[in-house]
Amino acid sequence: MIDMMIQFVSGQTLPFCILLGGCIIVVVEAARASRRALWGDMFAEELED
């Protein structure tokens, strides 16, 4: 069990998982922050009618 954990940490899997997790966080936060900028015009037109 300890040997498997040491191999996981010392291999290329851990940095790839950290990079993948960071990319997911950045994409989710960017989509959340720009939701009004991306979709605001569509909803504003519906509310004006």
Describe the structure.
The chain starts with a helix and ends with a helix. The protein has one domain (1-45). It contains 3 helices and no strands. It is mainly alpha-helical and 49 residues long. The protein is rod-shaped, with a radius of gyration of 20 Å. The mean pLDDT is 78.
Average pLDDT for all residues: 78
Termini separation comes to 64 Å
Summarize the main sheet.
none
Q: What percent of the residues sit in helical stretches (DSSP H or I)?
A: over 70%
Supply the number of structural domains. Answer: 1
> Uncertain runs with pLDDT below 50, 5 residues or more?
none
Total DSSP E strands? 0
What are the secondary-structure elements, in order, as H or E? HHH
The number of helical segments is 3
Radius of gyration, CA atoms, in whole angstroms: 20 Å
What oligomeric arrangement do these chains adopt?
A: single chain
Shape: rod-shaped
Q: Which structural category do the helix and sheet elements fall into? A: mainly alpha
